[in-house]
Amino acid sequence: MIEWSPSKIKAFQETLLAWYDKEKRDLPWRRDHAPYHVWISEIMLQQTQVQTVIPYYERFMAQFPTVEALANAKESDLMKAWEGLGYYSRARNLQRAAQQLVTDHHGVWPTTAEGLRELAGIGPYTAGAIASIAFGQPVPAVDGNAFRVFSRLLEIDDDIAKPKTRSVFEAAIQRMMPADRPGDFNQAIMDLGSSYMTAKNPDSAHSPVKAFNQAYLDGIEDQFPVKTKKPRPVPVDLLALVIRRGDQLLLLKRPNSGLLAGFWTFPMVDVAELQAASERDLVLESDLSRALQKWAMDEFKLALTAIGFTGGQQVTHTFTHRKWRISLVVADLAVDADLSYFPGQWLTPKAVAKTAFPKVQTKLFDQARALKLME
DNA sequence: CATACGTGGTA
DNA sequence: TTACCAAGTAT
């Protein structure tokens, strides 16, 4: 890692901000610096691309225009607004933070990064972003862009996948913050990171700050940032149950923590767990069918009959750490089946449009329709 | 500290 | 298809 003199820092600030004044992106959340607008956009932008966020942001602001509206929103409406964006705890934390603002802070925003950190879902990056953009505080906002940009500018070779590395970057960036325009500085770094100083195929030869890019000048730009790789998603085989009653389908509410927390999906069984719980190898469909019936009875006192394996191709869905491979299974409910132990509900076709579903469930709906199992 | 947590885009 | 990336946070 290299050090810059005060005069070089000054020159960098001027070059960067002059470029930003000319070339900054025209984004919906940049129409003003209202903390509510900055906050919602920053949460949506976590691990999510600008192009994906724009339509969600516009709809969200139309539906929940103020902190109070968000605090008082129905959770089902909120989740429907967030449907498809992923990382759904972001939406739930958003509402919790709105309620914190209304009740704990009487509607008055904390103006410092430390104060903002008290709000649900606001970590070190988002606190820095809101504090600098909305409140003019000279604090860094260290996101993936900042890691990438400054690792190249200063040849910082600490592993950005390690949590402790954040403090190294925060300290380095803190010394560069211009006292008069910290918000613009942080946003300029992000624009730089998404234009010239990209992760793949950077165009540093035309970058406005190429003269400051030490890694580029040394011809070692491809060595930065240093980042250890993440493990590949683990394959998981599942069975999804399509249980019908007329035109309705039986859906199961997932636990309130963990993957797709709180969402309604087809009941799903992990094939490996089913196998482990079985007394014999599940080689025949009749064996699988028997194991499935026992599973439903053990788990929910749910009696299933006429279990059929559809044979259609598997539905696959990949998360950050899991790869689901799902086979659809049609089952009938025994005529005297007792649903009182089943934490589920019958879903009408009309309710499908009103309810928020995770992407994997919409894929399962699509497959069920293709197999003429619904609608 | 390492891992869980969604989805869509690109090479 | 795999691999990796995209304005991270909670536990």
UniProtKB/TrEMBL annotation:
Q: Which GO terms describe its molecular function?
A: 4 iron, 4 sulfur cluster binding; 8-oxo-7,8-dihydroguanine DNA N-glycosylase activity; adenine/guanine mispair binding; metal ion binding; oxidized purine DNA binding; purine-specific mismatch base pair DNA N-glycosylase activity
Instruction: Name the GO terms of the biological process aspect.
Output: base-excision repair; mismatch repair
**UniProt cross-references to SUPFAM superfamilies, sorted A to Z:** DNA-glycosylase, Nudix
* Keyword Cell inner membrane applies: no
Its EC number is 3.2.2.31
Annotated catalysed reactions: Hydrolyzes free adenine bases from 7,8-dihydro-8-oxoguanine:adenine mismatched double-stranded DNA, leaving an apurinic site
- UniProt remark on cofactor binding: Binds 1 [4Fe-4S] cluster.
Q: Which cofactor does it need?
A: [4Fe-4S] cluster
Pfam families, from UniProt? HhH-GPD, NUDIX_4
Q: Which UniProt keywords apply?
A: 4Fe-4S, DNA damage, DNA repair, Glycosidase, Hydrolase, Iron, Iron-sulfur, Metal-binding
According to the UniProt record, what class of enzyme is this? hydrolase
Give the top-rank taxon of the lineage listed in the UniProt record for this protein.
Bacteria
**4Fe-4S listed as a keyword:** yes
HhH-GPD domain boundaries: 44-195
Which PANTHER family is this protein grouped with? Answer: ADENINE DNA GLYCOSYLASE
Q: Which NCBIfam families match?
A: mutY
Similarity comment text for this entry: Belongs to the Nth/MutY family.
What is the recorded function of this protein according to its Swiss-Prot or TrEMBL entry?
A: Adenine glycosylase active on G-A mispairs. MutY also corrects error-prone DNA synthesis past GO lesions which are due to the oxidatively damaged form of guanine: 7,8-dihydro-8-oxoguanine (8-oxo-dGTP).
Name it. Answer: Adenine DNA glycosylase
Native species: Secundilactobacillus kimchicus JCM 15530
Upper lineage is: Bacteria, Bacillati, Bacillota, Bacilli, Lactobacillales
